[in-house]
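Retro notes - structure team

What went well: the batch runner handled both jobs without manual restarts.
What didn't: labels got mixed up in the shared folder, which is why I'm recording both outputs here explicitly, each with its sequence directly above its tokens.

Job 1
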Amino acid sequence: MPHQFLVSSGSRLLSRVLLSLPVVALVACGQHEQPPEPERYVRTQVLSAQSAGMQREYAAEVRARVESRLSFRVGGKLLERKVDLGTVVKPGQVLARLDSQDLILAQEAAKAAVLAAKVNRDQLGADYKRYIDLHRQGFISAAELDRRDAAFKAAQAQYEQARAQSDVQRNQSQYSTLVSDTAGVVTSVDAEPGMVVAAGTPIVRVANDGPRDIVFSVPEDQLPLVRAAAARPGGLSVRLWADTKDTPRPIELRELAASADPVTRTFLAKAELKGADVRLGQTATVLLTGTQSDQAIKLPLSAVAEIQGRSAVMLLDGKTMTVQPRPVQVVGAEGNDLIVQGLAPGMEVVTAGAHVLTPGQKVKRFRPPGPPAEGTSPTATAPSASAVPMASASSKP
């Protein structure tokens, strides 16, 4: 029995030791340090002050300066609409008609009321003349004559009122036809035949045939820039997408909204383009050219990345050959370059692969291969592009 007990105890102890070996091995593996980031080759640019015009662009379109929503002055059922979207209309042209049966009946009732008031007035007028003769003969008193005079004047007033109401009803019956006031083009259709519309409900929208405006929206923080550019000759210009010349044309700021749009929170601006034959709805680009600056910092698009929700660049420290992020503010664009603030001339910025670098990472400058300088051996040149692990997403471990 003691011998069997020792054997079983030893086997259990051995099994526990064997089970614990993988755990110890895993713990030992977890304590290994991560390999350091490899030194990547990066393209850099030493900053210098450059000349820039600080140009901004705004999406715009061509609209009519006066655009009217036409509607009926009375309510009723829409019987027909004689124009469609894009129809060119002339002054006096019929656009739509309402069912005028009720209006015609009301006009007939008003005419009957005029006739009744006229008959009553004529009857009281004849009575008043007879009472004048009776008063002269002394058969009635002056008070009775005054009452007859007042009754005649009241009948006369009722007759005038009935005539005025008849004229109103006649106009109401004419209001059942919607007529264009000016020449223009239909830009919107808001009602279809069969609808019952109230007085003032828009039926069609007509853009008047007249001056055109370049309409665009301006963010709140750029309002001072737009006002300053408008006061400077050549500060605002427009480029029409359909223009084959692709040459900006000068425009004049005519109107700038005093309050922001409740949805977009932008301010509507209208500019005038003189001496140009433009069509309604054309797409355009408004160009805002700021004052010329000789101390601007320009960077290629690839140099600016988003780091922690902000625009930033990677600065290279030439002594330690490490990179650190630097937040910048993009204030404009000129061609394929961005104009930024927050940097100074003399700084060295990574222009390619900044989005895959980490703060403090060591890098090497990449220089494209070329013929060796005089007095140097061919092995002194930088490695070829095919042998250089550039800073890209595919080379990250």
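Job 2
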Amino acid sequence: MDEGRRTVLFRLTTGKGIRAYRAFSAEYTRVAQQLRDEGYDVAPPPGARHYERLLVVGGVRTAPHAPTARVLERMFQRPVGALLRSAAEEPTDERDGSDWAPSPPVLNESDLLMTARDAASHSGEAAALRLDELTLDQLHDDLLALSRKYGCTAPSEVFQEASSLLQQVRVNLERTRSPEQHTRLYYAAAQASALLAAVSFDLGALTPAVSFARSAAQYGKTIDNGPVQAYAYGMLAFMAFWDGRPSESVRLAKTGQQFGGLGDTARRRLYAIEARAHGHLRADDQAQRAIRSALEQTGGQRDELHDDIGGEFGFDAARTAMSNATTCLLLRDPTGAEEFASTALTLLSSRPQTEVPIVVSGPAAIDLARARLMRDEVEGAQEALTPVFQVPPGWRGSGIMERLVAARIELTRPQFRGSPTALSLAEQIEDFSALSPARRLGAQSPLAIEA
């Protein structure tokens, strides 16, 4: 096209990279919407044929009407008449730099008021998307109660409650824009996921247990909460040695110990888990060192998760002794195992019966029985197992079952052959195990394999 026949509009659209009709129409629509929002009357984009005529001098007989002209003038910061004249006739001072840096529009009070109204509307929406603090308080109380009654509640019931609480967290996260409330909700999600990890393991479902523990760790990382991450890594370490990966378990336990903000309880738990992992590796010195480290955590440091909430997140003296008894059994140390198991049971005996956690008392009693079997004391083992055989089927989790299977294998040693007491005890263990949820889910016990 001859330069003299091109309009200023042709030159400006070319310079802005919107010469093609589709690009021009998109930009026109965007600017038109801005003007419409400001209360102006605007027209739709010119048709493709009309647009092409606007690019040629004399292509249109009359200038565009006001609703169209208003958009073109905002787009190019020129009067519409100037846009339709020949580009060759445009003064040099208007042409220089106008292709790439048009003058900004002149603001008026209407523009300022519109922006202020937009800001007020957005801030109002943000304020409206905030949960009542009582909702978060109730969620916190429900998780605290579930954690504290965990050891005295059937695993299936814990699973249902924890699942419901996690779902509540997910729904509430969509209902608030408050960063502070998001932090509280992610903390609650971490707790619910951790409880689901623990109960999934108790039910003998290792794969979902690992997945829930990883979710808890991720939630903790999101809010930079050290104790939450430490608890989750302890769970993963525990599951690793139970799954036959004790070296990985040691690594995970040590990683958990590096998180900030941990109290004595958190560190005691991680050292006890590390000791168990070393026990599976038959690393006596490292296991004994970790046991000592667990018992030395008495500096009075606390954290909210392990101490203030506690319950399943806690790790008191009885639970520590129970775990250390299992470590001693892995090291084939019946004397140490009996001492720790007896300590755990003695500590638990001072509590009301309704407050004694089966997830601690059951394993401790079985460890005591197995320690006695290692010394060929069948009658003593039978006595220790008497309260265990009274545990209802719904409570017979993996922690109990793995130890019972290991005790059953102790009864296969040559010195017990022909013993009516040993035979009777073995049959009781088999009958008891057949009704456990963990057995129905197909759980297996590495402890039994290693026994």
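One thing worth noting from job 2: The chain has 24 helices and no strands.
We'll revisit the folder naming next retro.
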